[in-house]
Amino acid sequence: MIQPGRFITFEGIDGAGKSTQIAASIDWVRAHGHEVVQSREPGGTALGEKLRALLLHESMHLETEALLMFAARREHLAEIIEPALARGAWVVCDRFSDATFAYQSGGRGLAEAKFRALEDWVHPDLQPDLTFLFDLPPAIAAQRLASGREQADRFEREQRDFFERVRNAYLQRARSSNGRIAVIDSARDPQAICADVLECLEQRFS
Ligand SMILES: Nc1ncnc2c1ncn2[C@@H]1O[C@H](COP(=O)(O)OP(=O)(O)OP(=O)(O)O)[C@@H](O)[C@H]1O
Ligand SMILES: [Mg+2]
Predict the structure, then answer these.
(1) Closest protein CA for atom 26 of ligand 1
(2) Structural domains of the chain sorted by starting position, each given as residue range(s) with its CATH number in brackets
(3) In the list 2, 26, 115, 121, which could disulfide-bond 88, CB 3.0-4.6 Å?
(4) What's the mean pLDDT when you consider all of the chain?
(5) How far is the CA of 20 from the centre of ligand 2 (A)?
(6) Which ligand 1 atom is the nearest neighbour of the CA of 148?
């Protein structure tokens, strides 16, 4: 019988260090003998990447943005995530529904109940097995992004108080996640953060 795969997600405000940290986790999963599928949201499929381009660069109504996030997610689940998990692969994904709760509810101020309804529609029976929340003050994240980016997208152009709200929504979600979301202090050097991530993987899955 195929052992069903595990679903691991990376979360945090823009510039928190998700992309920097993801490779070591992928190596860890591979070293433990599992197939790994790496993906990201919004995106992950051909249609999803088109929706990502719209979401990051076109202005739109707040609710259109929220609905497109879940539309892209529906496609991503059907095309990539569910088949991978079913065949026993592990899926490591840069952002998932926690990001929509944090950005579109916490950041944009849309009612959380709307997102619970969408989540219940799009993935009623699936949550990540483990989520890393890379947490750091928005001021530090902004400094990191300022030194590395050419052109900011719609979200990266938001003001500091937007990212404070997103950060607080993420932390609130972590507190009510029954341990699914591991909060990683990301205001440290990359090696220290990576050590925490790998230790957490060992604890949860070895
Ligand atoms: N621990 C760290 N200390 C200092 N700089 C870091 C650290 N981690 C990442 N960086 C740098 O900060 C910038 C943002 O990191 P990264 O791209 O990993 O963030 P991200 O969470 O993926 O951001 P985004 O949400 O915009 O994709 C990069 O230039 C990266 O090299
Ligand atoms: Mg990134």
Answers:
(1) 14
(2) 7-205 (3.40.50.300)
(3) 2
(4) 96
(5) 7
(6) 29
